[in-house]
Amino acid sequence: MSRSLGDLDRRMCPLAEELLRQSEQAGVPLKIIDTLRTPEEHAVNLAAGVSWTQHSPHLDGLAIDVCPVDLLHLKGWAPRHKDWQIIGRIGERLGLRWGGRWVRQDMGHFEYVKPTTSDITIATMGES
After folding, report:
1. d(C-alpha 42, C-alpha 11), whole Å
2. What are the tens digits of pLDDT across the range 89-108?
3. Contact of 70 with 83, CB cutoff 8 Å
4. DSSP string computed for 37-82
5. Is the model's pTM score more than 0.70?
6. How many CA atoms within 13 Å lie on the side-chain side of 95?
7. pLDDT of 58-83, one tens digit each?
8. Pair type for strands 97-98 and 30-34
9. Whole-number Å distance between alpha carbons of 23 and 67
10. How far apart (Å, rounded) are the C-alpha atoms in residues 14 and 115?
11. Looking at CB atoms within 10 Å, which of 9, 104, 120, 128 has the fewest?
12. How far apart are alpha carbons 13 and 113 in whole angstroms?
């Protein structure tokens, strides 16, 4: 299991870097827990019940798991702590999908979302 930003897909890496930067600026420094996984590592996570999908975006370098440094020592990383909402909003503003919105919450999970045609059109409207 990798913790290296360099192992992330070229589309995900700058977003993950920005998530880390903006979270630090907001007073919530993050520790990287997981970036790229091998299929074997993912199978272990499935068996342990810490992953719930057969094909995780971690397998393609399109997801990152993080934890606020101040919460690392807390059992279960205090999923109701305000810091999760801060980093969740940051990630979503960057266009990432946040696991904190899922029914089965994964507070530290952020994954790449392919931009839609309308996102690209809006982004380029002001350019000449």
Report:
1. 21
2. 999 999 999 999 999 999 99
3. yes
4. --HHHHHHHHHHTS---SS-GGGGT-EEEEEEGGGTTSGGG-TTSH
5. yes
6. 15
7. 999 999 999 999 999 998 889 999 99
8. unpaired
9. 11
10. 15
11. 128
12. 13
